[in-house]
Amino acid sequence: MRLLLCTQVVDKGDSNLGFFHRWIEEFAKHCEEVVVICLREGVHELPHNVRVLSLGKEYDTWRLTRVYRFLRYIWEYREHYDAVLVHMNPEYVVLGGRLWKRWHKPIGLWYAHKSVTRKLRYAMRFLNRVFTVSQDSFRIATPKVCVLGHGIDTALFKPDIHTESTELRIVTAGRIAASKHLLEMLQTLDVLHERNEQFVFTVVGEATTAQERTYKEEFEKAIQERPYRDKVHLVGAVKYHKLPALLRTQDVALNFGATGNMDKAGLEALAAGVPLLATNPQFATLLEPHGLYVLGDATRAADMLQKFLSRPDRPAIVATLRNKVVEEHSLEKLIPKILMNLAE
Description:
Strand order of the largest sheet: 3-2-1-4-5-6-7
Number of helices: 12
CATH architecture of the largest domain: 3-Layer(aba) Sandwich
CATH class of the largest domain: Alpha Beta
Shape: elongated
């Protein structure tokens, strides 16, 4: 198959979307040719059968210029692809759907978010397949949906020798946003502090919108009100390929998200051999049998965390959870499934 991929960013160093560089590499292993149209192009090292076409946001091009370029690219390269996969942005389907249908190009959309927009609903009329993580991560009822799990690079996110520490090393990764419930994480740390637990809390990620920047200010203010303020480190964005090394230095990860989706950051932590304590309902099936899924307040979360860390079978549980991620969410298993369903 020859494939057209439409995505936001092709940049292996991007802290948020750097993972898609590995997706492109994996698609290239299974496709004769891959054409990638992206909103912004950055640093990349891709196989010889991949061609990257940027809409020019890295040069602050006008929106109309980007729309013109997109339409020109899909026309000029129409003989170089047999099918189309759009990553998370139904806008591309809205723009190109009619042409792709006229040219008999199967169209797939990867979408994993609780948000249902008018653009998404309009795009549905052109789509052959929608690929998503779980039943709850795509909120339109349609037989076009294929639930395939996440695409975690389990060769990059893998365990290593774990060094001991006198302090409990806690990490969370992702955007700094209200939906991630970082303030609730501080409430759990309050309980640990009251119990004289020695810890360091590392927050990986950045605020990317005005609303998120407002939340970050609130979060930073709340940190300064804590007696353990010096033990909370906001490290900002971390380049994707450097994230596994940071995770492997930690003892436990937190995911209190309420995004309606199984956060990729939580699965990456598990793949790296870091146990995950989550309140996110999407992790319930995976974590509840091991006492790592929390329903309740900060005291309950602190109780479960301390109980898990005292278990003698903790290494075996960590290994079991990693194996589950490899089996159900690895990138190597995901890409062939997408291509098989898109070709039907």
